[in-house]
Design brief:
With 90 residues, the protein is mostly helical. It has helices spanning 10-15, 43-51, 56-70, 78-86.
Amino acid sequence: MNPPIYFNCEPVFAIFNTYEEIKPIKEEDTPFQEEFHPIWENPAFIKYLRGKGLSDKQIMKECREIQRIINPEGITSEAQRKIEEDFSPI
């Protein structure tokens, strides 16, 4: 038998605000635009961390660490992401 595999899902939870209301897509809607939000603006994740008994200081430390891991370049806009891709050494 194979041993169980465990995953740390907190970075995934941090990325998605499960409280966000999603509206149906309409053909006349404007094109999608990528948005960048820091993890500490995600109310669902903050509530999750508070439920674990973390203080505000611990929550901010956890959010910054996850943000650093998932966005090491610190990209904050669609335009900045495009520039980073255009000048990538690959």
